[in-house]
Structure formats: structure tokens, C-alpha cells
Design a protein that fits this description.
Pfam family, one: Stimulus_sens_1
Strand content: 5-15%
Main location: membrane
Radius of gyration: 51 Å
Oligomer: single chain
Number of helices: 13
Helix content: 40-55%
EC number: 2.7.13.3
Structural class: alpha+beta
Protein name: histidine kinase
Largest sheet: 5 strands, antiparallel
InterPro entries: HAMP_dom, HATPase_C_sf, HATPase_dom, His_kinase_dom, HisK_dim/P_dom, HisK_dim/P_sf, Sensor_TM1, Sig_transdc_His_kin-like_C
Distance between the termini: 28 Å
Length: 517
């Protein structure tokens, strides 16, 4: 688990800046694919080149076919063909003789088939389209075509492609750029065998329009997807981040100790991970408050319990110098010694009660036979004379009385329960320890013949420093922590300790249950 967390942390550091908010991360995750899609705009240049390549082939074929048609025609027929083909194909056709002199121009013979627009007179939308063309061309580092300019010299040598045709004898293609940035394609082809040549000029504005149309469609899709992605990202961020911020604000208030009754939002309506986190934080806060309340209550109880013997001890010590009568001095000394023993007992019990949870959380559980454990505890106490004249028996009603636990701690539970039963038993009373199966748990009952425990007092006996003792016991011999410590140990073993509803001996009957192995 630690390695997975480490890999996740490294991946997070590589993927996003450490200071990036969740909103920024969500937006980035959703927008990066759109940015990648936006880069496809640059691939439109390859689409434009493909269209140009196809148009080059078409221009070459048109020039060659037209040249063949002109080769066998009379001068009048040649002029008629130039006008007809120019109108139909929206081109400008010029024919030159063997000396390179212009002998026919379709634009001079008839109305021009196309006109070139002046960028200064075009609307803003066209200007924006041209700027976009230039930006894309610059980004993809497309080769810029030379500008299309009608030469002042009307001879064939003014056109490089015509010069090459006259020298090499086969069709030549040239690409130029109109004033508005649209392509101008010229094709030069030889006419017949007498040295004449043909020059065709096409304003391929449809190529630019096709590229712009494709780019507009793609941009429209990108902007719509971008808007939808931003809205969805912000919605997703709101559903994730705002609840987290509410949790953070509540956690900060809890940490600062402000508004003790602050309610950490549980978000019960949410069934996702945020809802699970909110409920976990709320439960954790409740547990923390309960623990704080318990610690504060325990501290107050400790101060109260220690204060009484300290006050008695102080009074006895302060009185000793003023008392000269030997019997009274001996009595004061006995009081002081008794208070010291009481304080020592309290400190020991308090220390043990405070470290039980920590010790058990680190302890290794092992198989413990409860019947054998109680038998050993009873035998030891009988040897030490700690059961007074009571008869203590251990009855095992199961074949296997083993449970998983910490032997020393379970032994402490047995000692506390037997001590409690001995304290409340009458002289010569009977105490029974019965171990039996209760479902999938092992139940142990410690019963006595004492006065029993009223129903309203059954939970109070497990409170810390609850020390309602029988009259025959000396005051201060018990700290009131015995049953509280026993319950803490049993609960740390996933068990329960409570007062049983019925006692076979008529007195009190304490029962604890532990899971079977």
C-alpha cells in the first residue's frame, strides 16, 4: 500500500504543479484533448497542398489539351477557342508565336473571366480570414508563393514558365499569390511544332475557400466542445471542490477548537466517494470529540480522586507536629500511610487505565484457555488469602474454552471480576465462574451471592472511579477503576462486558463474551 501511495504521489508531481488547484487540474484534463484537437488545424495545410497538387495536374492537362486544339486551328479559330475555353473554365489564355510575341489574349478578345479583388476594399471578415491563413502558414512554415503581378512586358520572356517551355519543350506549372492571398496557377505548354506557346492562368480561389470552410467547421466544433467542456469541468469542480471546501472549513474550526458543536457535513444524499469521505470525516470528528470528552472527564475525575487523599494526607502531616499524645500520633501516622497507599493505588490504576488501548493495539494475540486462566487466578488468590472465606468454583461447559487474546490482560480481567465478587459476597458466600458457548462467542459469567446490582445502576458500575463499596470494606481500598479497566480490555478484544439480567445465585452476575477461535 505504501509503494502504491508513493507511486501515486510521484505521478501527481509529474502530472501537475504542486500548487495547482483541483479546478485547474480538472480543466486541464478536459481541455488538453481539445488543445490536441485544435492542433489538427495545422494539418489543413496538408489538405491545401493536396488540393494544389490535384489542381496542378488539372492545369497541366487543360494546357496540353488546349494546346493540341490550337495547334491545327486557323488564327480566327484559335481566338474563338481562347475565348470559349476561357469563359467556360474561368481562365485567362494567352498565345505567343515562335518569336515570343503575344498574338492573342482571351481577356483582350472578350470580357475577363475573373477579376482580382483589392484587399483594401474587402470586408473585415475577409481580412480576418487572411490573417488566419497567414498565421497557419507561419506556424506550419509553409513556403510562401511569390506574388502574382502582370508584367509590363507583353513578350513570352516576361514569364519564367514560358521561357522554360520554349527551351525544354514540355508543359511547365507555376504557383503565385494573388493580392488577397489566394492561389494563382499558371501553366505553359508548347503549341504545335512551330515554336508557338500557350499560357493559361487560373484564379484558384475555390482552394482557399475549401480550406477556410474546413477550418471554420473544425473551429466551430472545437469552440462548441470547448464551451461544453468548460461548463462540465466547472460543474464537476463545483460538485467535488465545494463539498471538500466545506469539509476543510469544518475541519479547521474543529482543529481550532472554535464552535465546539460545529456540525461536520455528512452529505447523506451523496453516495459517491465525496459522500463517503464526508461521513468518514464526520464520524472521525465525533469519535475525536468523544475521546476528548472522555479525556477531559477522566482528567477531572483523576484530579477529584487524588485531591481527597491529598487533602487528608496534608491535614495529617500538618497536625503531627502539634500532637504529642502517642496514641493520637500513631493514628495520624496510620491515616497518612493509608492515604499514601491510596494515592499510590490510584496512580497505578490510572496509569494502567490510560495505556491499555495503546498496549493492546500493538500486542500480539495468542490462544488463551479461559477455564485454565480463571482456575489459576482463583488458586493464586486462595493461596494469598484474597478470597476471604468465599468458595470460588470454575465450571467449564464447553470442550474448547480457548479465545484469541493477550494473556496478561485477560488475567487482569479475571482478577478484577473475582475481586469485585469477593467484595460484595457475604461471609462464606459462593462465587461461580461459568464458561459456556453463546452462539459464535464464548461467554464467561462471574456470579456472587451479594446484594446484586439494581437495574438503574448496571451501567454506572463500569464508569471510572465508581466506588460504591459494601460497608465491611475500609474506605479507599479500591480505586473504582477495576470494572472500567476490565471493560476496556474486553472491548479491545472485540468483546462485551455487562451485567447479566439473571443470576443463578441471586446476587450480581457479570458476563463478558469474546469471539471464538
Amino acid at each position: 500500500m505504501a509503494e502504491e501511495d508513493l507511486r501515486a504521489s510521484r505521478l501527481e508531481r509529474l502530472a501537475f504543479p504542486l500548487g495547482a488547484s483541483l479546478t485547474a487540474r480538472i480543466l486541464a484534463v478536459n481541455l488538453i484533448p481539445l488543445l490536441v484537437l485544435a492542433l489538427s488545424l495545422f494539418f489543413l495545410d496538408s489538405y491545401r497542398r493536396q488540393l494544389l497538387d490535384e489542381r496542378y495536374k488539372l492545369a497541366r492537362i487543360e494546357a496540353q489539351i488546349t494546346a493540341e486544339a490550337l495547334a491545327g486551328a486557323t488564327p480566327e479559330r484559335q481566338k474563338a477557342l481562347l475565348v470559349q475555353i476561357g469563359k467556360e473554365q474561368r481562365m485567362r489564355l494567352r498565345m505567343y508565336d515562335a518569336a515570343g510575341k503575344l498574338i492573342a489574349d482571351s481577356f483582350a478578345l472578350d470580357a475577363p473571366a475573373f477579376t482580382l479583388s483589392d484587399p483594401a476594399d474587402t470586408p473585415f471578415t475577409d481580412d480576418l480570414a487572411r490573417w488566419t491563413d497567414q498565421a497557419v502558414n507561419f506556424a506550419v512554415r509553409a513556403d510562401a508563393a511569390p506574388p502574382y503581378v502582370e508584367p509590363d512586358d507583353l513578350n513570352a520572356d516576361a514569364w519564367p514558365e514560358l521561357s522554360r517551355v520554349r527551351q525544354q519543350g514540355f508543359t511547365q506549372i507555376e504557383l503565385r499569390r494573388a493580392p488577397d492571398g489566394t492561389p494563382m496557377i499558371t501553366a505553359a505548354a508548347p503549341v504545335g511544332l512551330n515554336g508557338a506557346s500557350l499560357l493559361t492562368t487560373r484564379h484558384a480561389v475555390d482552394i482557399t475557400q475549401a480550406v477556410r470552410s474546413a477550418r471554420t467547421s473544425l473551429l466551430t466544433i472545437i469552440f462548441i466542445a470547448l464551451a461544453v467542456s468548460i461548463v462540465l469541468s466547472l460543474y464537476l469542480a463545483a460538485t467535488i471542490i465545494e463539498p471538500l471546501r466545506r469539509l476543510v472549513r469544518a475541519a479547521v474550526k474543529v482543529r481550532a477548537g472554535r464552535e465546539r458543536e460545529i456540525e461536520v457535513p455528512r452529505m447523506d444524499e451523496r453516495t459517491d466517494e465525496i459522500g463517503l469521505l464526508a461521513r468518514a470525516v464526520s464520524d472521525m470528528t465525533g469519535a475525536l470529540r468523544h475521546r476528548i470528552d472522555a479525556v477531559e472527564s477522566f482528567a477531572a475525575d483523576v484530579a477529584h480522586e487524588i485531591k481527597n487523599p491529598l487533602a487528608s494526607l496534608r491535614s495529617a502531616i500538618e497536625s503531627l507536629p502539634r500532637v504529642t499524645e502517642p496514641g493520637l500520633r500513631a493514628q495520624l501516622e496510620e491515616v497518612a500511610a493509608h492515604d499514601v497507599r491510596r494515592i499510590d493505588r490510584l496512580v497505578s490504576e490510572i496509569s494502567e487505565a490510560s495505556r491499555i488501548d495503546a498496549e493492546l493495539s500493538r500486542a500480539t494475540f495468542e490462544l488463551v484457555d479461559l477455564a485454565e486462566l480463571f482456575a489459576n487466578v482463583v488458586a493464586t488468590k486462595q493461596t494469598r488469602g484474597e478470597v476471604r472465606d468465599c468458595v470460588v468454583t470454575v465450571e467449564k461447559q464447553v470442550d474448547d474454552a480457548r479465545v484469541l487474546g493477550v494473556p496478561l490482560r485477560l488475567e487482569r480481567v479475571a482478577e478484577n471480576l473475582i475481586d469485585n465478587a469477593v467484595s460484595f459476597s457475604p461471609p462464606g458466600g459462593t462465587i461461580t465462574v461459568t464458561i459456556r458457548r453463546h452462539g459464535n462467542r464464548l461467554a464467561t459469567l462471574v456470579c456472587d451471592q451479594g446484594p446484586g446490582i439494581p437495574e438503574g445502576e448496571r451501567e454506572k458500575v463500569f464508569r471510572r472511579f465508581h466506588s460504591q463499596r459494601p460497608d465491611h470494606e475500609n474506605f479507599g481500598n479500591h480505586s473504582g477503576l477495576g470494572l472500567a479497566i476490565a471493560r476496556t480490555i474486553i472491548e479491545a478484544h472485540d468483546g462485551t462486558l455487562l451485567v447479566a439480567d439473571e443470576s443463578p445465585l441471586g446476587g450480581a452476575c457479570l458476563m463478558f463474551e469474546l469471539p471464538v477461535t
